């Protein structure tokens, strides 16, 4: 059995986050000791590592909840896991495209700024007037 502190050290997940995952139903509420301390069973370590890795990949708590459910049913086809992962990949690619657009616009704004004072600063002007931007962002 693990205390919440030991579980945090083993997984790199902070204590408040472990409590939050417990409140969200991602990990089971553990039994408590006579001193009212949480005592997590060893399988919680693997489950928490799964959640942490999924969060590191940017998956939402709802997607993680679904993937955890799937992982508890090993005989189910993995089609749904693929659907979740592909949807997340699509979201990431869309964010990357948006960030690339933002990068290009900011690069253009910065490189076209030749003012020596704030009053002549193209960065300040572009932020104040969206019409000076070349793309919608």
Description:
This protein starts with a helix and ends in a 9-residue tail after the last helix. With 137 residues, it is mostly helical. The model has no long low-confidence stretch (mean pLDDT 92). It has one domain (4-111): Multidrug-efflux Transporter Regulator, Chain: A, Domain 2. It contains 6 helices and no strands.
Helix content: 55-70%
- Count of distinct strands: 0
CATH fold descriptor: Multidrug-efflux Transporter Regulator, Chain: A, Domain 2
CATH class: Mainly Alpha
Ends apart, CA distance between termini: 50 Å
Spatial extent as radius of gyration: 23 Å
Beta-strand percent range: under 5%
The major beta sheet can be summarized as: none
Count of the separate structural domains = 1
Overall spatial form: elongated
In N-to-C order, the SSE pattern is HHHHHH
Low-pLDDT segments? none
Q: Helices and strands: which structural class?
A: mainly alpha
What is the typical, i.e. mean, pLDDT? Answer: 92
In the CATH classification, which architecture applies? Orthogonal Bundle
How many DSSP helices?
6
List the helices and strands and how they pair.
Layout (H helix, E strand, L loop, with lengths): L3 H8 L3 H9 L19 H14 L4 H11 L7 H33 L10 H7 L9
Relevant terms:
137 residues; mainly alpha; Multidrug-efflux Transporter Regulator, Chain: A, Domain 2; 60% helix
Question: How would you concisely characterize the structure shown here?
Answer:
By secondary structure, the protein is mainly α. The protein has helices at residues 4-11, 15-23, 43-56, 61-71, 79-111, 122-128. Helix content is 60%, strand content 0%.
